[in-house]
Amino acid sequence: MPEGPSLVILREETTAFVGKEIVSATGNAKTVDLPSLAGQTIVSLRSWGKHFLIELPHTVLRIHFLLFGSYRINQRKDAPPRMALAFADGSELNFYACSVKHIDPDLDTSYDWDADIMSPTWDAAKARKKLRAAPAMLACDALLDQAIFAGVGNIIKNEVLFRIRLHPLSAIGALPAPKLRALVEQARQYSIDFLAWKQQGVLKQHWLAHRKTSCPRCGIPFSKGKLGLTKRRAFYCERCQKRYG
């Protein structure tokens, strides 16, 4: 599943499509009247968390890549597209195995931009306030809560918890104030690092915990399991990642 930094890359890669008129829209999406998109001009391309937003004159298309979604720019996969947008100059945008829906065109009402981990308006204080309002929430669930950390996915979750030496089953309400602050600060910082490493093609080389078998600090095997309400895979060290609560 693409995480927030990957959506920033997609947004940057597609800036040339802003202002172009769609000449045809095809695919197997059932939730969008694809032929009706022909003749419409792309007003803007935005991202929020894990959502890619195509703003048209009278509607907005929201694309969520789910677990196995992907896209191709001016290329095609050997698979049926969920939505394929073609333009007069021969360029095209193709989306696969994803969710495509119409949403309210008033994006400022639909989205809290301050919650987007990659947004210039990211508000750490607001994130801390939301966390303090959910003291029973586990750290592994908190990082994946898109209302708090929009764009954080399982890779960032595992790496942030390892970076700040926090056990994924720690209760948010039991965290000392400096640890809560570190959780918020590193969710943002690791996402920025993720973007830079992804752009350089070296992201996996920097993984210290995600999909790893042993702790690089302690040299002992990592524990792993599907933890919390989200049941997403966690990789963590029982020795150096302290459990609170």
From TrEMBL:
It holds the Pfam family Fapy_DNA_glyco. It comes from the Bacteria. Keywords: DNA damage, DNA repair, DNA-binding, Endonuclease, Glycosidase, Hydrolase, Lyase, Metal-binding, Multifunctional enzyme, Nuclease, Zinc, Zinc-finger. Residues 2-94 form the Formamidopyrimidine-DNA glycosylase catalytic domain. This is Endonuclease. InterPro entries: FPG_cat, FPG_N, H2TH_FPG, Ribosomal_uS13-like_H2TH, Znf_DNA_glyclase/AP_lyase. It catalyses: Hydrolysis of DNA containing ring-opened 7-methylguanine residues, releasing 2,6-diamino-4-hydroxy-5-(N-methyl)formamidopyrimidine. Belongs to the FPG family. GO terms for molecular function: damaged DNA binding; DNA-(apurinic or apyrimidinic site) endonuclease activity; lyase activity; oxidized purine nucleobase lesion DNA N-glycosylase activity; zinc ion binding. The lineage of its organism: Bacteria, Pseudomonadati, Pseudomonadota, Betaproteobacteria, Burkholderiales. Residues 208-242 form the FPG-type domain. The keyword Secreted does not apply. One of its GO terms (biological process) is base-excision repair. The keyword DNA damage applies.
